Amino acid sequence: MKTILSIGSVALDTIETPHGSVKDLPGGSATHFSISASFFSKVNIVGVVGEDFPEEVMNFLTSRKVDVEGIDIVKGGKTFRWSGYYDNNMAIAHTLDTQLNVFENFNPKIPEKYKDSKLMFLGNIDPVLQLNLIKSAGPKDLICSDTMNYWISLKNQELLEVVKASDIMILNDQEARELTNKNNILKAARAVMELGPIAVVIKRGENGATIFFKDGKYFSSSAYLFEDVVDPTGAGDSFAGGFLGYLSTVTEINNKNLKKAVIYGNIMGSFNVEGFGYSRIAKLTKEDIEKRYEEMKDISLY
Q: At residue 302, does pLDDT exceed 60?
């Protein structure tokens, strides 16, 4: 089992959906990813928060085998906050307010003891920071990077350098099209892999996710469907946590294991949307995950 290095945002979210509302709920890409991945392996997290970040969340992360030494607590600072809502179309988040606070000057430093982590996940932070982290993190068996439309349009050239330096990119279908200027998802995936990655995962919301390989093959896993999605915030990062978490347990990164990783990614994303924030995932057991894996194998005809 290999340790995972997780770098990204740690936040407090205020969210409203048709199922209710919550205020100052712990979130952020590194938070959702790390909790999800912790069901498979030890995780080292790097992020920044203010003194207002709840101590009980730090304690919870520690209880989940997440090392929090890499979270910088800025004295007198305030944690990154995001406020938004979802209407009946739960695929689209509507932002009401963003307060970067201490995250505005986030300059992540990797603790020396984290540098022996074998796998690394880079959340959707500034690609300049992502590239610096890739260069400073030490040798890795696998580097998996995420991004968002904001960085695709604002720092495209820097992001392309991140793509070149990554083993796997995780994108949603809109991001893949915008990054490559290809409307066809297959063409977009090929264009990403031509830059360097061995594979690209394209998330398609309620339609699941597809992983594309350099040999031209691909594998699609359906989403686990619900009548009521409570809160989709963090589902993509929970997917990444399940995906990379499973890969931390195998000895070889091959197409077969990457396919299984996509299924585990969908599973962790599906648990995430069953409650606000990480409330549902916090109550999970390994048995719950494996039970849903057996269901997902049937759904995906794997």
A: no
